[in-house]
Design brief:
547 residues, alpha+beta, Neuraminidase, 5-stranded antiparallel sheet, 4-stranded antiparallel sheet, globular, disordered N terminus
């Protein structure tokens, strides 16, 4: 793997990109937005707790606005979902779409979809007391007549009478990232990725802005084995006490807890940033690998190798780098992949990531690393593109047999990044032979449908090959930046299920190129222009009153 970190102001075009670049550079040295939001969010909490808004709106769909290679076609299967995040199929070919209940006023459900007709019904309603408002139901898998469901920190299976039988509980999934969707391995065991509580192992004000810190103030990241700390601590607003004062927090400890040099943190099989497995009845939970930030999607190749997508480090918290890419790792049993002191197999304090202005608090928090040279990614994706669900082609009639198909959810600028051009919002193919990432399904204009003049995909969250050999893409729906739900809100009724089907004729390698528009830069420039116009207008009005 040979890549260089992309510049923050990627995708700038002409005067618009240049005009925003200087502003973005200055913003790098300003307090992180999430820290500011966290400090401001605390005193506003009584008001936000009373805010319960059902955000609903219709959405247009134009399959021809999604570009795919020659020899393939895009079809809309079903629509009107509330935040669908994942899908799987049973032995009879029924499709189960999982609605996750994250930052939305619609509770999690499992929907049973007839992919031939597009008709769907509610298969399972998550009980109200199982709805963790700061967590998420992340997905399901079908195995031996049962649907296995992952909800925030618990793996369960749905019983014949539509009850929930809990199999693995108390997983460390109540933070920024949850316990991720399960899959069945070649050995018949249930595998799943486990995300981290934090961005880089330090609980901070950003975690209050993400809401969970208020509910679970004692939660923190847990390593997969005993680790020794350097004793570095980070100062931040006391968001769970008095935001006007500060506290100091170290790695792998609760908010407001300082660490000391040589301090040992005990490891646990229920650890963050890991891939875990268990028997179908939940017994014999095992650690497969750890040191990953958020191994969101996992899948096995046709020959039994295990791979995982990983979300890279965000530009937030008192400890981060700028320019981290998103990765695709081959998972080796027993390996440590470097988090929280490495990204893409490279130390955070390595000059590779740039000078001191390219992040904060980049020094190691671990005094000893389980592996001083952790594995490098198999391939990497663009920064903040959000590689979520993944599946491998196994059907020669579809083509690209053995290659991985990955749903790129898309960035969350400006909450976790500062980009000028949308990143992600498409489906890509990983050529496993050449280690290339190739576009497979892209909107005609790069970016989500709700923000641009097209009616294609919004946010692809999962890719799954069905028993019919077609590729099904779960479209999460529309996300808006908002204060009342910890930074974002998700609109009801905007989720969908797409299908990509092989047609007659020769198969192309990739789709026509999408039109790339620096929409974030344009929005920032317009916002700045509006602010200047407001100030000028106010000054003019004041002068008139003075006459």
């Amino acid at each position: 793997m040979d890549h260089q970190p992309e510049h923050l102001e990627q995708g700038g075009a002409g005067g618009v990109g240049a005009s925003v670049t200087g502003v973005l550079r200055r913003l790098r040295h300003a307090p992180m937005m999430d820290t500011v939001l966290g400090a401001q969010y605390a005193p506003l909490l009584p008001l936000t707790l009373r805010t319960h808004l059902h955000r609903w709106r219709p959405r247009r769909y134009r399959p021809d606005h999604v570009l795919v290679p020659e020899g393939y076609t895009v079809e809309l299967v079903a629509k009107g979902f509330n935040e669908p995040v994942h899908c799987c199929f049973d032995d009879q070919g029924n499709c189960y779409v999982i609605e996750c209940g994250h930052k939305i006023e619609a509770k999690p459900r499992v929907l049973k979809v007839d992919v031939r007709t597009g008709e769907w019904e509610v298969f399972f309603d998550l009980p109200g007391d199982r709805w963790n408002i700061t967590g998420a139901v992340t997905g399901a898998c079908w195995h031996d007549g049962h649907l296995y469901l992952m909800n925030t920190d618990t793996l369960s299976r749905i019983t014949p009478d539509k009850g929930l039988e809990d199999l693995v509980t108390d997983l460390p999934g109540k933070g920024d990232h949850q316990s991720n969707y399960p899959v069945v391995g070649p050995d018949g065991k249930i595998y799943f990725g486990q995300g981290t509580h934090t961005n880089t192992a330090v609980v901070g004000a950003d975690n209050y802005a993400y809401e969970w810190l208020r509910h679970f103030p004692q939660e923190h990241d847990v390593p997969g084995q005993d680790v020794v700390l350097t004793g570095r601590n980070y100062e931040m607003p006391d968001v769970i006490g008095n935001p006007a004062t500060t506290v100091r927090t170290g790695a792998y400890v609760p908010f407001g807890t300082e660490t000391t040099p040589g301090q040992v943190i005990e490891g646990n099989v229920r650890c963050n940033g890991s891939v875990l497995r268990c028997n179908p009845d939940g017994s014999d939970l095992e650690l497969v690998a750890w040191g990953l930030r958020n191994p969101y999607g996992i899948a096995f190749t046709p020959d039994g190798r295990l791979f995982a997508t990983e979300h890279g480090i965000d530009e937030r918290n008192n400890r981060h780098i700028i320019g981290d890419l998103e990765d695709f790792y081959e998972i080796t049993e027993g390996a440590w992949y470097g988090w929280p002191d490495f990204a893409s197999g490279i130390r955070l304090d390595d000059p590779y990531w740039g000078g001191p202005d390219r992040g904060r608090g980049r020094e190691p928090v671990l005094a000893e690393h389980p592996d001083p040279n952790p594995p490098k990614p198999f391939v990497s994706f663009a920064q903040h593109s959000g590689p979520n669900g993944v599946d491998f082609s196994r059907d020669t009639s579809f083509g690209f047999e053995g290659d991985a198909f990955v749903a790129l959810f898309g960035d969350l600028t400006p909450v976790t990044a500062r980009l000028t051009t949308p990143s992600g919002f498409k489906v890509v193919r990983v050529d496993m032979a050449t280690r290339e990432v190739v576009d497979f399904a892209v909107n005609k204009i790069n970016g989500p449908a709700s923000r641009l003049p097209h009616a294609g995909m919004e946010r692809p969250s999962h890719c799954q090959f069905g028993p019919d050999g077609n590729l099904y893409v779960v479209d999460f729906g529309e996300v808006s930046i908002a204060p009342e739900k910890g930074g974002i809100r998700v609109w009801e009724n905007t989720g969908a299920l797409w299908r990509i089907r092989r047609t007659d004729g020769l198969a192309g390698r990739q789709p026509p190129p999408a039109t790339v528009v620096p929409s974030y830069a344009i929005k920032a420039a317009l916002g700045a222009a509006g602010a200047v116009a407001g100030v000028v207008g106010g000054v003019t009005a004041w002068r008139r009153r003075r006459r």
